[in-house]
Amino acid sequence: MTTVTTTAPAPGSSAGEQPVLTIDDVHVTFRGEHHGDPGIPAVRGVSLQVAAGEALAVVGESGSGKSATMLAVLGLHGHATVRGSVRFDGRELLGSPESVLRTVRGAGIAMIFQDPMTSLNPVLTVGRQLAMAMHAHQPGLSRQAAQQRAVELLERVAIPQARRRCEAYPHELSGGMRQRVIIAMAIANRPRVLIADEPTTALDVTVQAQIVELLGELRRDEGLALILVTHDLGVVAGAADRVAVMYAGTVVEHGPVDAFFAAPGHPYGRGLLGCLARLDRDAEPVPIGGHPVSPRQLPPGCSFAPRCPLAEPSCDDHPPSLRPWGATVVACDVVTRAAGSSMVAS
Amino acid sequence: MTEALHLMSREPLLEVRGLTKHFRIRQGGRPATVHAVEDVSFAVDAGQTLALVGESGCGKSTTGRCVLRLIEPTAGTVRFRGTDLGTLGAAAMRSRRRELQIVFQDPLASLHPRMRVVDLISEPLQIHGWPANEIPDRVDELLALVQLGAEHRSRYPHQCSGGQRQRVGIARALAASPALVVLDEPVSALDVSTQAEIVKLLVELRQRLGLAYVFIAHDLAVVRQLADRVAVMYLGTIVESGPAAQVYADPQHPYTRALLSAVPIPDPSVERRRRRIVLAGELPSPIDPPSGCRFRTRCWMAEPRCASETPALLPRDPGIPDHAVACHLVGTTANRSPGPVPAPHDAGATE
Description:
The complex is a heterodimer.
Chain A: E1 19-30, E2 40-51, E3 55-59, H1 66-73, E4 80-88, E5 91-92, H2 98-104, E6 109-112, H3 116-119, H4 126-137, H5 143-156, H6 162-165, H7 175-187, E7 193-197, H8 205-222, E8 225-230, H9 233-239, E9 242-247, E10 250-256, H10 257-262, H11 267-274, E11 323-325, E12 328-330, H12 333-345
Parallel strand pairs in A: 3-8, 3-9, 6-7, 7-8
Antiparallel strand pairs in A: 1-2, 1-4, 4-5, 9-10, 10-12, 11-12
Chain B: H1 2-8, E1 14-27, E2 30-44, E3 49-53, H2 60-67, E4 75-80, E5 83-84, H3 90-96, E6 100-103, H4 107-110, H5 117-127, H6 135-145, H7 162-174, E7 180-184, H8 192-209, E8 212-217, H9 220-226, E9 229-234, E10 237-243, H10 244-249, H11 254-262, H12 268-273, E11 276-277, H13 304-308, E12 314-315, E13 324-325, H14 333-336, E14 346-347
Parallel strand pairs in B: 3-8, 3-9, 6-7, 7-8
Antiparallel strand pairs in B: 1-2, 1-4, 4-5, 9-10, 10-13, 11-14, 12-13
Helix pairs in contact in B: 5-6, 5-7, 7-8
């Protein structure tokens, strides 16, 4: 009842705004299956932050470590070693006891997943599940008040006939409607950060448009900080302020959406945009070529080098770090060096 | 070869007329009928690609399966090279399938997990009576065709990546040299980079082998890469069909317009300026579809007439006879005007 009842006013601009969530040099290693197995380094030093009212998109292909990073934020990894720092509202979450994490999950930071059907309990009505979410953080809430609030929440996420829908079971709802219910549950305790992991991937495109619209509204109206994990760059362009591109467990490019989409810096970022089929251009999509590296056999240098059209022998020496490149930061020595020398030349 | 066929007859390779599929189910103990596909007609010429596009539950996959008689249509005819497939017995149909193949969305579900790649690709050759001593060479040829290295021969599906598995699925479909392949969401389960690879492969194969495709997909941006013609489906019916370039550039049916406007464009400046038509409401149940026009319950222009008369799929502009639309209101001022879409459907307007 006491955790988070007020939300910071929505900022006009995210520049200079104090981040509400700071992920700092987070590593996630899935434990090995037998003695002597070093395990799988799924996330290798990811740093991100998000401010109130801001939307950060984290993009990458399957296995890039985007979801593993987000699960680490909420301490949801069962069989992994997590290192680094995650600060929410100034408090360190990594290493915090379960009792503390439980007060943060849902009430401070809420998370929604790709498949709404597996996130909902099939044998409980929607209203009951919403009430349970509220009671987890507001044990003193009366049954009647919870019911009333459940109706309000369903109305907030634009579910028609909200009062009647409270009595519905998940299977009676369409996919888009279920994802709305999940979003209603996620905002039930007025969290300040919403992590949406592929929230529209399982949905049809017209329904996707509705859900993206809703997430944008919540961000604007309630000052929610949104982290949108997705593989769909089209959704990113319409829904995010900043984008972080992940590859093989690291952030390889990070910056404002306009700068990224106008001219991605990292060869992988360029590849991701170049391989998209799009409605607005006739250019034929160009596959990136090669395959993502196995996290068990990472090259000593840049992990994208084996697939990279710009790779040089020196790329195999050491992993590149993020360096400024225009308005973004890029982890590619070849690109940032070229930019540096052209600046000197001009 | 395509040319020769055309000279011999003007008959399309595949012609579907009035295809209807109803599923009988029990709902709460009472019998009910799912109207999955209702009176669908289209034709595909040799070497041509027709895309059936639409969202979940629009009947596109059911249509694809009815074409191959993997499920039996309730009504309507499917003619392939002039033969009504519905008249063929089981054995005759099976041998006809040498020319009519299908690739499924999820290769992990459609490939036998305990068969190696070489056996998976040999199987259709054996079924269609390929001489046993020629099969190994043909398998190598097919692997090369789908650009899989010889090292994949002895792998199991779980040892291949998603893209490699889909290549195996395509090799199986191509094994017996079909003339037409139904592609049922062949790239939907793949990462974007792999999608681009598979689409590129499908384009190359079409050119090399003169294949006709029925490409079933929900992703309009992917469809644009591949389709000569597009048929847009909604709740079991085709609402618009025409040359792909024409439909994309000048969509006529309100549903097509909404669908195209919902496709995200990876450019923030375009996205900010875009007027998106966000459809209100939910897809009605195919058990009890709306009377008249099936889209009318979500259409912002619907008139009383739309509830009483089912619109026919007809060319609306005599200048473009092969662009057909099933809407009473196309051509009227309400639809023609590009002006603002009335609230609450109007969203994303920035001004």
